[in-house]
Amino acid sequence: MDSEVINKSKQLWHYLSSFKQIEQSDAIVVCCSYDLRVCDHACELIKSGASDTLVLSGNTGNWTKYIWSRPEAEIFKERALRNGLNEERIILESQATNFGENISLSKELLPTAKSVTFVSKPNALLRVKLTAERQWPEVQSFVSCPNVVFPNEVSNVVGILGVINEMVGDIERIQKYPDLGFQAPHELPNSILEAWSYLIDQGFTEHLMKP
């Protein structure tokens, strides 16, 4: 792959995943996906004492509808049990199909929570943060993700090209979703916008919003 494409993609990856903050929380909410390492990371946080409660949220998405016949939350629960978590610590939410629903449906399950850590794949971290700030402003929210190195360690489920397309779509949504009421506003650095535009020009448009 063209080295400049990799360099621009690394810029997006590092920026989108740079908002990680681990604090003691009333609950850890996992935005499930195709990457089970997200579940592993959340389990490590539970074991470290960061929280006593794990919410696994997700039905199916753009990728997982092709790889699993059951909701992401159920697959993640099996992974959490294999990681040694007690079942009574796990709350399952198997209806959400996007970040907004991950957060709003988890909110219904945690009516007394004052602080929540949301865990996602690295390239989704900023979008999850901004969505939580808009959809659940009553809680103190933090975000965390597994340490995954781009491009060598991206998920084999989607591959490098799939992840680049995802990130290009994420940058667009960070710009447009605040006006739609989905996310809190966020000012992206010019260097990130330039890298994003370059990748669009190189044909990474599969996850852009429909006109």
What does it look like?
The chain has 211 residues and is α/β, with parallel strands linked by helices. It folds into 2 domains: 3-13 and 150-201, no CATH class; 18-144, 3-Layer(aba) Sandwich (Rossmann fold), CATH 3.40.50.620. Helices cover 44% and strands 11% of the residues. It contains 7 helices and 5 strands; from the N terminus they run αβαβαβαβαβαα. The protein has helices spanning 3-16, 37-47, 72-82, 99-109, 125-135, 159-180, 190-201; strands spanning 27-31, 54-57, 90-93, 115-119, 140-144. Strands 3-2-1-4-5 form a 5-stranded parallel sheet, with helices on both faces. Strand 2, helix 3 (72-82) and strand 3 (90-93) form a beta-alpha-beta unit. The relative contact order is 0.19. The mean pLDDT is 96.
Beginning-to-end CA distance, first to last residue: 29 Å
How many E strands?
A: 5
SSE order, one letter for each helix or strand: HEHEHEHEHEHH
The number of helical elements comes to 7
Overall 3D form? globular
CATH fold assignment of the largest domain = Rossmann fold
Major sheet: 5 strands, parallel
Quick one: CATH class of the largest domain? Alpha Beta
Which residues form runs of ≥5 with pLDDT under 50? none
Task: Determine Rg (CA atoms, Å).
Answer: 16 Å
Total count of domains: 2
**Based on the structure given, which CATH architecture of the largest domain is correct?**
3-Layer(aba) Sandwich
The CATH homologous superfamily of the largest domain corresponds to HUPs
Percent of residues in beta strands? 5-15%
Strand order of the largest sheet: 3-2-1-4-5
What would the average pLDDT be, to the nearest integer? 96
Share in helix: 40-55%
Structural category is alpha/beta
